[in-house]
Every structure is written in C-alpha cells, then in structure tokens.
C-alpha cells in the first residue's frame, strides 16, 4: 500500500513510520506545521509539532530512506481547533482540543489530502488497534497497552476514516518497548519526553490566554439557590469541578470546600456548591458519531469514558431522535458540557458524543 506516515517528531510516530516501512509499504513521511509564527506552539517536553519536532521527524525519515514533506495546516488548525477552543469556552463549555485536532486535522484535512494524492492509508503513532470483523467491517479497539491506550481521543473517527487508518503500535505491550526499538534503530529521539498540555498556549497559562481572547469581565459567584457568595474576574477561566481560584473568602456552612458546578456565560455567573453536587446521573449530546457499524438497537449496555485517562464505567446508552443519551450505572463526577463521552462495548470503541447537557444526581435545594 501507499502509506502517508504522520510524523510529529516524537518517538511513537517515528517507530510507527519505521514499522510501516518494514511491512513493505510505500511510505512517505509528512510533518504538519500548525503555526506560521515560531513560539506560538509549546516546545520541548510540553508541546508537539514545533520547528524542533519537524527537524527530528526529518532526521528519522532520512534514516528510513523515505521522502519527507512539511505541510502547512496552520490556517485549518487555527480555524478548526484554536477558534473552536475559544468559542467553546465563550459558551461556558470545556473543550478537548486534542480531540478536535484528531477529528478535524489528522483524520479529516490530512486524510482528505492523502486520499486526493493517491495514498491508501494514513499511519500514526497512536496506541489503538483496528480489528476487521467476519464481514470485513473495520472496528476501532483499545491498544494492548491499556496504560498508553489512546482509543479515547480517536473515538471521533468514522467508519470511512477507519478504512484508511493505520496504527502500527496498537499491539505493542508497552511504551518502554517502543523506546527500546527506537534506540535499536539509532533514532536520537528514543528518550524524547512525551508531549502534553495544550500545544497552542506557549506558556501554559490557559486562564491568561483565554482572557486575552474571550475577555475577563468581573461577575458574581453564586450558589445553587442563586445567592451571591463572591465575585470572579472572568467566567470563561472556570471549568466544572474546579476548586482553586474561587476566592470566596469564607467557608460554606458545613465547612466543606466548594466546587464549580456550572458556568453561565450569558449572565456571567459561576455556580458553586458541595462536592456531592458534582455527581451526574445522565449526559447527552446531539453531536454524535459511530466508529464503524452503528449499534443495531436504540438502547444498549456499554461503558462510557469521559476523559482520556479516566476509567470506563458501566452505563446504558440510548439513541433518541436528536441525541445520544448515556446513563451511567453509578453517577459520574464533575462532568462538563463540551467534554467528549466515548462509548465502548468491551474493548471496541462504538462511538462518541460531545456533551451538550448533564442531569445532576443531586436535586437543587428548595
């Protein structure tokens, strides 16, 4: 097959590209330039897709003897990931920019361009597996190394995208084995730290970065009954489940800490309450997709995962006329609109939805 290897400059994508070459595929490496302004993406251990990363990827491609290109996706990244991040926070939601990047950049813009150029598949360094069922349908499954499993952030992939996706690291038992393989191949980046955090916020100050784009107008901090407890310096900087930074100045009647329960951008209010009020009995989203063949029933047992590193929990999912509604067997803690709920059946990723609304497990006091 003719394979386009997405090479971020990290050890995982380097080894994935090498394995695609070893498998006999006709491989071309590509690095995505996501910003035209140096310094606007995080560098070193905390970011990805920087100038240094492109140089690391180019060196690996040279060692593998494959063609290598840098594609400028900065405008698409700004519109589909950065602007979306700002818009979601402006609406009081908590977005996942890595999920949007996988959905709209790596497996939409990149894959579309790859197919237009005659490639059969895009290979990445994600830890996930693709399984073909008896009828030839491709399914997305968890990786063998559950500690490194990245199937959650790939839950946005559609059946059509899975047809052209390749994850050479899916069956690898550990990240240590990948690093050892990189070292054995002579890759200088064998011990390069993993990237993390939000790549387009260079200094890591999400609150300050948002204030410069969303604004930071002072407003009230209220409890669930509407009583004003204090003031904040900008509602967009808060997210559900947050405890620090409230600065109310006096304790709750029971002496327990308060947590952010809701952000209301229209009224510029931050709603706070006790930890138990973070419990959510139901989540739902109208923006949902299926990673392969959709479920045959409108209601089914499953597991749901709401964060990349959270444990999946038993739930019942139901497809209504407009929503995917998920009811966990036990209430979930601290779920925010804007997060992604990924639905599993066993190790298989069945689909996902962006959470639009939640239903509290704890009634509002009269």
From TrEMBL:
TM annotation in the entry: none
Region (Interaction with tRNA): 148-150
Matches recorded under InterPro entries: MnmA-like (IPR004506), MnmA-like_C (IPR046885), MnmA-like_central (IPR046884), MnmA-like_central_sf (IPR023382), Rossmann-like_a/b/a_fold (IPR014729)
Record flagged with keyword Transferase: yes
Alphabetically ordered keywords of this record: ATP-binding, Cytoplasm, Disulfide bond, Nucleotide-binding, RNA-binding, Transferase, tRNA processing, tRNA-binding
Domain tRNA-specific 2-thiouridylase MnmA-like C-terminal: 282-355
Gene3D superfamilies: Adenine nucleotide alpha hydrolases-like domains, HUPs, Translation factors
Pfam families linked: tRNA_Me_trans, tRNA_Me_trans_C, tRNA_Me_trans_M
Keyword tRNA processing: yes
UniProt binding sites for ATP: 6-13, 32, 125
Catalytic activity of the protein: S-sulfanyl-L-cysteinyl-[protein] + uridine(34) in tRNA + AH2 + ATP = 2-thiouridine(34) in tRNA + L-cysteinyl-[protein] + A + AMP + diphosphate + H(+)
Domain of life: Bacteria
Main location as per UniProt: cytoplasm
GO molecular function: tRNA-uridine 2-sulfurtransferase activity
Residue ranges occupied by any tRNA-specific 2-thiouridylase MnmA-like central domain in the UniProt entry: 209-273
Active-site positions on this chain: 101, 199
SUPFAM superfamilies, sorted: Adenine nucleotide alpha hydrolases-like
Residues the record marks as site: Interaction with tRNA: 126, 339
Listed EC numbers: 2.8.1.13
Protein localization: Cytoplasm
Signal peptide boundaries: none
Protein task: Catalyzes the 2-thiolation of uridine at the wobble position (U34) of tRNA, leading to the formation of s(2)U34.
Protein family according to the UniProt entry: Belongs to the MnmA/TRMU family.
Protein name per the record: tRNA-specific 2-thiouridylase MnmA
Gene that produces this protein: mnmA
